[in-house]
Design goal:
The structure is a homotrimer of 430-residue chains. With 430 residues, the first copy, chain A, is an alpha/beta fold. In chain A, 30% of the residues lie in helices and 23% in strands. Chain A contains 12 helices and 19 strands. In chain A, strands 1-10-12-11-13-16-14-15 form an 8-stranded mixed beta sheet, sandwiched between helices. The first copy, chain A, has a 4-stranded antiparallel beta sheet with strand order 5-4-9-6. In chain A, helix 5 (189-207) links the parallel strand 11 (176-182) and strand 12 (214-220). The two termini of chain A are 18 Å apart. Chains in contact: A-B, A-C, B-C. At the A-B interface, helix 6 of A face helix 10 of B.
């Protein structure tokens, strides 16, 4: 796979898209998701799907659609002491409509604050139990006087549909790589505008190059979205050879890869190789929580889908609060994630098995222009890579096996195989 | 397996039993063992077996029976300078009878002292070579004047029998767990009154609860006792699915588990899980010495029998000396060992394989009352356990596998499986 | 295998032989190699082989033969400013003949100096590209005035033959162990007179003892020599069960073993056991560069051949320079290497599988004189070894397996097996 432009422009494009998407009030259904997918569709080709409320999807049912116009808590004089227009985090996602006069005592059970930080608004949801609620800073709550409030959630919650989108980029093979991110969070930047914009840019990069594998990029609401997709795509599932859930990828933490349930699938080995070579890169074992990898890795599917993240879910202080703002993500971090994802793709695309056609003794590299003339000094990395590929290409070891054993970067091993193939010293096994 | 009372009373009961047994002069045969088993039989149902001297047992022969009434070294005026009545350690176990006047020089080859501590009496035996001897403190030996002594060992050594006892607690299955301890040491507290009293209390606890497996508790003289038992119970051997030798379990060291020869038998995994989670708990590889595990793990039997101990044989300063007194053992330490043993039993009883009945995607836990309603915070350990059991229950992984992979305690995983079984989300595979 | 004399004399014999061989100008062909093999042949029986230039050997061709009489760079007045007679390193090995008057500027492209040390002559070769060159110290080069020089390489480079030698020591079995070293370096002591003299002494030691395995010691020019040998001995290859390349074994670094490509072949396990027990001993993974192990471990042969060295290639400062002089090697270091090699041979010779003939319970060692009479103290290493061999001899574990699991030295385990065999407690499985 040839490289694509990863200059400042990619990072800036991602930040710009994130900024446009930030104010939208996304949830697991509704117009916020639709507006988000429309923006993404400006940059990459997207198939948007609507699935009606009430549709059975695996063990679940597509829920009613939620949309919200406005919400507030106001004093008798009409002053909004809590205002949805200031931050869409102020309303518990999927709050049912309410319009009431309530005392502070009556309001209290519907109020959520952040456990630690006095000035942060927490993010809360109630998708599957009908209720309503407001999220306030501790300071806001503390300032509320013991009086009567006008409480309004101007929302609709009823039959509609769930919205998700796919971008399918066909390759030479039908084998598919799925790349999935969740689009259900409102104004939270790292979780998960970062995932959305990296996936968008990744789709644009992949669309521009020849592909051996087919790539399917999924923009889905968390949990119910991947469940809905799985439910409607059982014929695609057997073709999936690798996958990544990409989320929380804009913060300053170093890159992390969480293995699939299988633990040693091709994607696990490819991603471990790439992430393991990064400064501070972490490779973590599978655990059955996190994001949509939970669904892809359920035992009935057991797909080879890992997770690319920077700070894992809940590992950063700002997680699920108003502090997860655009300030938390940066172009260089988004670009670094994009670069890692593309390197993993390079391994998935480029890994294959060769056979040494001159396996007895080393072939004489010198007369083929593959070796320096005057001997006695140290071998270069390129020369070592040639020797490794020759030594290991017995039909049993792939280039990734060789990169792992030699501790050389995959692209160096890949380049050595190309030089050896060009001089007829190795042949690809198909 | 429901919990049994493990309060202060259990520790105190164990110390009280140890105190009653301490003065008895046990050896590999004789009345000391019989009196010991009589005391134990007051608390739990015991089958006592007598095997005649001369009986061939595997490669060995049941030895003559040894009993001792009195022994001393006295000066001409009748003053006992070494006195069996002061400590039964003063006489080498299995000393043949002697009654003689000896000079100090003649006595000297029959005297043993502790290699390090001047005030400790060492513990010595000579089961299979006929001789006699006295064990003295260095100080006692140093104080002996160069004169003539009356030397008396008033013992009998002749045909009789070897005594051991079993407590069999039948379970729903014929599969057996053997729990074995040695009863051949005289007045030594940690080695091995501690093992005797823990095994006694363990039998009482197991007798009080329903059992899936059958438990066979063995009180045997070391080496020759387990060899005799194995020789007479070859039809039981194939039913043994797990076992523990329990010895030296009252001292302050943290709990240790020594693996069976197989290294990864069910009991090894169960005990490693339990012991590995304890503060300072150590899991050690099998070595072919120690106590009766040597016999159970001989290659002709190769039984899955590990060893539960605190300080391993020879690892505590007081080992095989008069300093291994009742002061070395304590109720809390005995109770801790009992608790570990019962936890291991809980794993052996409770481990089994489930199948997820809703394996595609996660089932919706919320509508089954298994998930909090308002999302956004961190999952609890109980919720994680539900997800782990669902994710791993593909028919290949047992609850212990899941506990190991998730690093959750077995009982938490066990409880999660119960909740999922109650809501028909998993079914036990039989 | 009984021990051989490894006293001061062996180390001194090795140093003396190295001193006699040091001045000879070896290369991959020519009279320097022949003179070297003649000297070695004084000590051990050698079959010397000549293979004509132009002979195809695997992917290579035996090159023309190179011999050199003299070489120098001289000023107009005949003063030699660079003189082959002072050090044969001054000439690039395989320099083609030249006789010319050159300006310093014209000479310059043919001059090599050491990258770091101003007073060291580097070692350079140009076997497969026709050129000529001189190796100078940085100081020599700096002192050259900008004038005209007489440049002479009085060498011949034309059809002849490549020379190598074998010493075959037949054993009871046809299974072969190859022990190989390179003989192509000129006046360099550690690389590789050290390998040559250790291999010579090893041959002498092996010749003096009974052998289960057949040993084939190879003195070959690097790369082309092992390729030539492999090409001409394809019928021997299937009989090779183990092998060692021995090189750079006289310097002060601790002993190192580099695994074969297979990684866990018998020789890898034997050598890891021996080297791993030495102070500072290192066991390194296979890499496809170094010395002739590259050829033996090429995928078409994949022989179980590891490498015994002290400092690996390029790991010592003096590598491939005039500082790799006789001062760098020492009798004690050569002897230590010889001892390690003989210990590895001991394992290869002595490893086998026994069956415990009394596998149920421990046999009673006491009545067979294999156990102390008075019990209660700590077991000795010899007693532990007896118990380990008995416990593990179920027909599945070799003595080396037992040494590895018990962490006892192989020779202790071997001795225990002998004692148990002598008392009919174990029998060798053939």
């Amino acid at each position: 796979m040839t490289t694509v432009s990863r200059g400042t422009s990619a990072g800036e494009r991602m930040i710009q898209l994130a900024s446009r998407l930030f104010p939208l009030c996304r949830s697991i259904t509704g117009d916020g998701v639709r507006a988000t997918l429309r923006e993404i569709g400006e940059r990459i080709p997207l198939d948007v799907h609507e699935v009606a409320s009430g549709t059975p999807v695996l063990d679940w049912t597509v829920p009613d659609e939620w949309n919200i116009e406005d919400a507030y808590v106001a004093t008798a004089d009409g002053t909004r002491v809590v205002d949805f227009r200031a931050s869409n985090l102020h309303v518990v996602s999927y709050s049912e409509p309410v319009r009431a006069e309530l005392t502070l005592a009556e309001l209290r059970p519907h109020v959520h604050t952040h456990a630690v930080e006095p000035d942060w608004i927490p993010y809360r949801t109630s998708y599957y139990e009908r209720t309503w609620g407001f999220c306030l800073t501790q300071r806001q709550l503390g300032a509320l006087e013991d009086t009567t409030y006008e409480v309004v959630v101007d929302a609709t919650l009823g039959p509609g549909s769930l919205t998700y989108a796919e971008c399918v980029l066909p390759g030479a093979l039908e084998d598919e790589v799925i790349l999935s991110t969740h689009v259900c969070h409102p104004s939270l930047a790292n979780d998960n505008l970062s995932g959305i914009v990296v996936l968008t840019e990744l789709a644009a990069a992949l669309a521009a190059v020849p592909r051996r594998l087919t790539y399917r990029l999924l923009f889905v609401p968390g949990t119910i979205g991947s469940i809905t997709w799985l439910s409607r795509n059982e014929e695609v599932v057997p073709r999936i050879v690798a996958g990544l859930v990409i989320a929380c990828v804009g913060d300053p933490a170093p890159i992390s890869y969480k293995r699939s349930r299988r633990g040693n699938a091709g994607v696990d080995r490819a991603a471990s190789h790439v992430v393991g070579r990064r400064d501070g890169g972490r490779v973590l074992d599978f655990v059955p929580w996190g994001w949509d990898e939970r669904q892809y890795n359920s035992p009935g599917f057991d797909l080879p889908v890992g997770t690319l993240t920077r700070s894992a879910e809940g590992e950063f202080r700002e997680y699920h609060s108003s502090a997860d703002s655009l300030d938390l993500i940066a172009p260089a971090q988004l670009e670094d994630t994009l670069g890692v994802a593309l390197e993993i793709v390079d391994v998935l695309e480029g890994d294959c098995v060769y056979r040494n056609l001159s396996p007895k003794g080393e072939p004489q590299l010198g007369r083929r222009g593959l070796y320096r003339a005057v001997g006695g000094g140290d071998p270069s990395t390129d020369q070592l890579a040639l020797l490794w590929v020759l030594n290991q290409s017995d039909g049993e070891h792939s280039l990734l096996d060789i990169a792992e054993r030699s501790a050389l970067p995959f692209h160096v091993v890949r380049a050595a195989a190309d030089r050896l193939e060009a001089t007829n010293l190795v042949a690809r096994i198909t």
